[in-house]
Amino acid sequence: MAIRDLLSPSRWKRPRHAAPEGQRWYAIGDIHGCYELLNALIRTIDSDDEQRGVADTRLLFLGDYIDRGPNSRGVIELMMKLDLGDDKVVFLMGNHEEVLLATAEGNRRAAALLHKMGGRETLLSYGVSAQDYDYADPPGIVDMVRSAIPREHLDWLAALRSSYRAGGYFFAHAGIRPGIPLADQAPSDMRWIRRDFLSHAASHGPMVVHGHSVTTEIDERANRIGIDTGAYASGRLTALGIEGAQRWYLQTGTPDA
């Protein structure tokens, strides 16, 4: 083979797992009502982005903005301010948002599940008193969600995407169903799947970036990257940075007061 053939641009291959050319992505893991941690991580991202120089910078949030932590309302309001209505900032729906929306629609089983998943903290952040909540049954929780959470907040949550593709990366809150084409993935799987996805070692094609399954450290494998580091309990909220074939991680270290 001639040297000129080796140097031909047609032989230059971008790595399989690379961001679209010129784009710099920051994907943020499960926030769970940790408003102060979110603000701290955004400041860290701003600083990191500035140090790395000019690029088409984009943010992606992997879902689970609510429950467990102390200020779900503050998180949602900040998310809505960041929403520019384009792909510069992408928001995915997590299973916690799905349960809240089902509760708002009157689903009593969802209301009971919301309680088990940390919905008490969400409703307290919207002004519901602890005493009223602690005496509520599932129908009462439905009423509280409907009366305490502004309709515009619920509408915003209902419009969230289930997944997003950027170059060699595929983002979904919980992961994907192995063996199913990406275009045919069920939203419920992408918000809830756990064991079948986590135990699958073969390639999914693109690198799948997810939250949902808490790990004490960043969970990077050959076919997936998990960045839910349990912010509400650990005080560490994690972001994955991607540019070209490079990737790096940013974390907060100060728990909510």
Automatic annotation (TrEMBL):
> InterPro entries given for it?
Ap4A_hydrolase (IPR050126), Calcineurin-like_PHP (IPR004843), Metallo-depent_PP-like (IPR029052)
Single Gene Ontology BP annotation: RNA decapping
Q: Give the UniProt entry's GO cellular component terms.
A: cytoplasm
Q: Where is the Calcineurin-like phosphoesterase domain?
A: 27-215
Q: Which GO terms describe its molecular function?
A: bis(5'-nucleosyl)-tetraphosphatase (symmetrical) activity; phosphatase activity
* A Pfam entry, by short name: Metallophos
> CDD domains from the xrefs?
MPP_PPP_family
What name does this protein carry?
Metallophosphoesterase
